[in-house]
Amino acid sequence: MKRNELEKMIRRKALADMPDVYAKIDFENAFVADARPRRIRRSPVLTLSFALKAAMVLILAAITGLFILDQLETDPPVVLALETEAEVYGFQMVSATSLLSQFADADIAYAFDGGHPTTQSPGPGGPSTTGPGTDTETTTVPATIAEALVTTQIAKITEYLNTMEVMLAEKEDTTYEVAASGVEGYQWTLTFTTVDLLGETLVYRIHYNETADPEDASRRIIDGVMTMGGNEYALHGTVATEGDTVRTAFVAERGNDSIRITDLTDETGQKYRYDVVKDGADYESLTMKLLREEDSLVATIDHVTETESSNFRFRRTEDGTGFEIRYRYDNGTDVETGRMDVVVDYDEETSSYVYRYGVEAETGPSMGHSDHSGGRTDKTGGAMHPRGLSTQDAL
Fold first, then answer.
1. Taking 70 as the threshold, does the pLDDT of residue 21 lie above it?
2. For labelling alongside 337, which of 254, 271, 309, 357 has CA 20 to 30 A away?
3. Does residue 394 fall inside a structural domain?
4. Full residue range of the structural domain in which residue 193 is found
5. How many CB atoms lie within 10 A of CB 273?
6. Nearest to 192 by CA among 230, 222, 163
């Protein structure tokens, strides 16, 4: 028997033996469940509200990312204007002595004085000032504009400028060196070399001792002496070490005049407060901040009293022969900002060098240009000329 015939026979036999249940099913009353509905996925409708919400989410995400990035980034290290121990010691001691020398003796306070007080020529509405070192040649300005308010501060600025000329030479023209002293009674000699606005090389020397403080192992005591402008100044100081921080304090004094320097350096840079005593009484306090801009040392002096405040930023010109002074002056009533361009000029009448100021008052109630003069002290007194000819050696 063939295979297909056998399969047909088996199928017929199976159908014959299968019971008949189809006739017993009640198709009219049978329950059939509904088919599960198919979920239709709708595409979001782009509306103005939806777009604004999306934009806000993106902006918040960007701001959060920038904030986190800013937190992760570390602040760049502060570039110190004075880096070595010799520079820190030297700048403070020399600057204090130089500033003190401006009024140590009335007859040398202003080389331009010559015993002949001069009078400023105020513009319309400007104040009149008489005194040494304030000779003024004021250019003509419109009658509706008063003379610059800062002209009342020329004498004070001249005191500062006489010191800034000594302290703010270019880095390549300035050196601070400490070596064993050849002067009896002193351990060390700090030699400060600089160049003035006339191109003359000046050399100042400070002789001092440095010993441990018997009452505080973290402190050292400094005692020394320096000569400037023909006068001798006593120098005292302390150097305290606090972990990685070194704090200094120095005092320069002569007779009843003195200047105390307090170190206020912080993470923003090097800052010092100068407290001045004149004739035994408190005279003024000022703050000086130092910055190094490329190879230029820049000093900003803040001076505040009960009635006025001033801010003067001193920087040498690129050719090294003058100064640019940016200022802000508040006399308690008005605020003025501007700049001064300063050069050194020889005055035939007094046979001495003087400062010539070109003042540009840029804002405030006083505007326009005016010219002024201020006395310049002899920078070679107590210093050595580059050719080895000393007007007076510093001890």
1. no
2. 271
3. no
4. 85-375
5. 14
6. 163
Interacting residues of 126 by C-beta distance below 8 A, sequence separation 6+: 146, 147, 148, 151, 366
Number of domains, the chain:
1
Contact 132, 117 (CB under 8 A): yes
Q: For 140, list phi and psi in degrees, rounded to 5.
A: -75, 135
Q: By the 8 A CB rule, do 380 and 202 touch?
A: yes
d(CA 288, CA 264): 9
Structure tokens at 159: 């005191």
Tokens of 11: 């199928």
Residue 161 makes CB contacts below 8 A (sequence gap 6+) with 314, 323, 325, 342, 355, 374
Residue 219 lies in a domain: yes
389 token code pair: 């000819």
For 117, residues 6+ apart whose C-beta sits below 8 A from its C-beta are 130, 131, 132
Plot region of 391 (φ>0 → left; ψ -120 to 50 → alpha; else → beta) = alpha
Whether pTM > 0.85 for this model: the answer is no
User: Is 15 inside a domain boundary?
Assistant: no
* Angular region, 154: left φ>0, alpha ψ -120 to 50, beta rest: alpha
Q: Which residues contact 84 (CB under 8 A, 6 or more apart)?
A: 176
Q: What is the pLDDT of residues 183-208, one digit of tens each?
A: 999 999 999 999 999 999 999 999 99
The pLDDT of residue 148 is 86
Distance CA 155, CA 345 (A): 17
In this structure, are strands 335-347 and 296-304 parallel, antiparallel, or unpaired? unpaired
Tell me the C-alpha distance between 351 and 293, whole Å: 36
Residue 290 placed within a domain? yes
**Is the distance from CB of 123 to CB of 147 less than 8 angstroms?**
yes
Q: How far apart are CA 226 and CA 224, in angstroms?
A: 7
Instruction: Kindly tell me if the per-residue pLDDT of 129 is higher than 80.
Output: no
- pLDDT value of residue 245: 80
DSSP β-bridge partners for residue 285: 275
Nearest to 116 by CA among 127, 124, 107, 103: 107
Find all residues with CB under 8 Å of 32, minimum gap 6, and list them: none
Separation between Cα atoms, residue 166 and residue 177, nearest integer Å: 16
> Please, how many CA atoms are within 13 Å of residue 33, restricted to the half-sphere of its CB?
3
